[in-house]
Request: fold
Amino acid sequence: MAGRPREFSRDDALAKARDVFWAHGYEGTSMSDLVLALGLASSRIYAAFGSKEELFREAVALYRDGEGGNAIRALEAAPTARSGIERMLRTAVETYTQTNRPRGCMVVTAATNCSPENQAMMKWLSELRCARNRAILERLRRAVETGELAPATNVQAFADYFGSVMSGLSVQARDGVSKSRLIATIPSALMPLETRIRKPRPN
Reply:
């Protein structure tokens, strides 16, 4: 009589799947890759997660709830928009260059190009990146409302700019650019924003 399948931790399996997708992307990850990384038969993976797509969506959610969301949380927790943007960029670099994780941002690198049958997945990831940019936009709008930034500041342009900087940092990290080099770019990235910061009037 065959023994019962060994129990496994669903949370551990999901974390392993996250790292495989993070490293190889959605289309670049096969079910064979997942079987090998998780140490589970494909039938058990399907039973636990439903499908490769559902597993990927859960893996992305795990990433965003964890280190993948740290940059935006740093932005929103900072007392000023300027300090928040700096903390966001520094935290992003920390995340993108971890030694125990794949390099870059999972949401940026997982599906920038997809075959026709996976266009929905690419669109979904694009929406997540747009949501990140909206969070930056809202923080900059508040900075205008509170008087930190000049009233005529084009906050949409700045949100688009810093979203591009975040994506660029991810690509550079993926290409192997060191943490110290990426951190060194942050002061220059902040310079345009600093021209819009309102200086206190002298008494």
